[in-house]
């Protein structure tokens, strides 16, 4: 089984925010390749999705971003999923808006959701897709990532969600190295 986790914050107040771009990717996958219905378990919203012969579990932790690791650890433990079969999607202020970066492993890079997953799993050896939301022009990073995309950013954000969906299925079908080669173009 493959598990794809999108990071974000639960609740309608956070819908459409930069921090919830991981949730947006999973919602598109769940609606396109599944029934779009999530069940609440393991401190998360979980939906099984099938595309062809490939099955994945998409998971949105409902513990808020900074506590995402508990949900991820519970799912991996229950289903006995190896770290290589986990893919985490998160926002990244260090990437330009619309750019995605696929990694086979790595540190948290200051992202509190990834930091908590790293702490709960005791490892950084799991694949992730970082979704570029651009950096704030103001000093208030929390306000920026918890803010909604501006109207002139919406087209780029939607295209990035589509690219991320393609990256997820590339990872499921062909593995992390093919996915990295396909989606990691130069950063502008």
Describe this structure in words.
The protein has about 190 residues and is of the alpha/beta class. The protein has a single domain (about 1-185), classed as Rossmann fold (3-Layer(aba) Sandwich), CATH 3.40.50. Helix content is about 35%, strand content about 20%. The protein contains six helices and seven strands. The chain has helices spanning about 20-35, 70-80, 110-120, 140-145, 155-175, 175-185, and strands at about 1-5, 40, 45-50, 55-60, 85-90, 100-105, 130. It has a seven-stranded mixed beta sheet with strand order 2-3-4-1-5-7-6, with helices on both faces. α5 (about 155-175) runs antiparallel to α6. The chain is globular. The N and C termini lie far apart (about 35 Å).
Average pLDDT level: 93
Structure classification: alpha/beta
- CATH homologous superfamily assignment: Peptidyl-tRNA hydrolase
CATH topology: Rossmann fold
Rg result: 15 Å
Total of helices: 6
What CATH architecture do you see? 3-Layer(aba) Sandwich
Q: Enumerate the spans where pLDDT stays under 50 for 5 or more consecutive residues.
A: none
Largest sheet data: 7 strands, mixed
CATH class designation: Alpha Beta
Strand order of the largest sheet: 2-3-4-1-5-7-6
Helix content: 25-40%
Gap between N and C termini = 35 Å
Q: What are the secondary-structure elements, in order, as H or E?
A: EHEEEHEEHEHHH
Shape call: globular
Tell me the number of structural domains.
1
β-sheet strand percentage: 15-25%
Features:
single chain, 188 residues, alpha/beta, Rossmann fold, 7 strands, 37% helix
Question: What's this, in brief?
Answer:
By secondary structure, the protein is of the alpha/beta class. The chain contains 6 helices and 7 strands, in the order E-H-E-E-E-H-E-E-H-E-H-H-H.
């Amino acid at each position: 089984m493959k598990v794809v986790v999108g990071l974000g914050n639960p609740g309608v107040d956070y819908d459409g925010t930069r921090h919830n771009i991981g949730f947006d990717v999973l919602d598109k996958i769940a609606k396109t390749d599944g029934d779009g219905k999530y069940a609440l378990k393991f401190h998360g919203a979980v939906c099984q999705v099938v595309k062809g012969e490939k099955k994945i579990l998409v998971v949105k932790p409902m513990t808020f971003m900074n506590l995402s690791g508990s949900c991820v650890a519970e799912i991996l433990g229950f289903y006995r999923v190896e770290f290589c079969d986990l893919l985490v999607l998160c926002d990244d202020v260090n990437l330009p808006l619309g750019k995605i970066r696929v990694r086979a492993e790595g540190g948290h890079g200051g992202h509190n959701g990834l930091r908590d997953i790293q702490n709960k799993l005791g490892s950084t050896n799991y694949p992730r897709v970082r979704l570029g939301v651009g950096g704030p022009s103001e000093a208030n990073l929390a306000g920026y990532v918890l803010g909604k995309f501006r109207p002139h950013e919406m087209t780029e954000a939607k295209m990035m969600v589509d690219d991320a969906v393609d990256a997820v299925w590339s990872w499921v079908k062909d593995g992390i190295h093919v996915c990295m080669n396909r989606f990691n173009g130069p950063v502008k």
